[in-house]
Amino acid sequence: MMKQQKYILRILSHERGAALATVLLLVSVMALGAVLTFDAMGYSIKRTGALRTYDQARQYALGGEQLALSVAADLYDTKANLAAPRAVSFAIEGGRIDGFITDRSNCFNVNSLVLRRDAGTLIASEERQGQFVRLFANLGMADRQAQELVAVLTDWIDTDERPLPMGAEDYDYAALDQPYRTGNSLLADLSELNMIKGFSPELIARFEGFLCADASTDRSVFNVNSLTPAEAPLLVALIGGDFTFDQAVELILARPTGGYSDVADFWLDPIVAGREIDQSIRRQTTVKPHRFNSRIRVSHFDAISHLNSEIKVDDSGIARVVRHSVGVLP
After folding, report:
1. How far is CA 294 from the centre of its chain?
2. 191 with 46, same domain?
3. pLDDT, tens digit, for every residue of 21-45?
4. Do 137 and 78 belong together in one domain?
């Protein structure tokens, strides 16, 4: 009997030890799970806080863009000559909004190479092609190369499938090692020039300061109060005929110190007064800045946000954002 009791006690003792080990194992697992859960919760809280801070920085950047719109409208109303970038800057909680706005009125809109019809089709404009040919020629292109570049650029934008003389349509691009089709739409950005036949990175770098891509087929309009001698090719391309680069530089340097009060005064300058210049060309000049680039940088605690915007001011003086994108300040 005593032996049986001892045996039973030994079995019970062993079972209690196994149960205790199981309990301890469960407690360890639960403790580890709790630690991992709290770590995950801590990471989630930090991540949520970082996202909230970044989102707030992005909202501040949009606020900076609204300030740039206000500055652009004021510059338009006062006919300001924005020779240097205008600062857009102020302090915010936990950081600053810093940026600047520059006048980009003087550029040829590549999308003006076509006209938009009521049905939405885009057709080539021979008159505007002539301005682009003169521009490219004054930027160092041979006449034939300038004509070819303008033709292929126009074919890329227009919606028909008939190539212009020296132009290129779908079948020219389909023969490439990596075939693709023409855009058949307005260029959204000058970077699309890299896709177009004949436009090398070197040429694009040479042209980009004189070109822009507005979201319309509107004629290019130039601010004669902010033209610089380096931008003389724009005037040569605009006026045409036998108007020369040297005459364009002379005309720009002859501008009154305070600028022209009215565009008619510009056309009364003796250098151009005796020329027969069509009214449609005269309407491509203004004395007001109307197209701007703004660069906004926001630092808000640990978050950094950048916003690059293109702004246009219409004839009524209302400034609007044409497009904006996340970017980096130069």
Report:
1. 10
2. no
3. 666 666 666 666 655 555 555 545 5
4. no
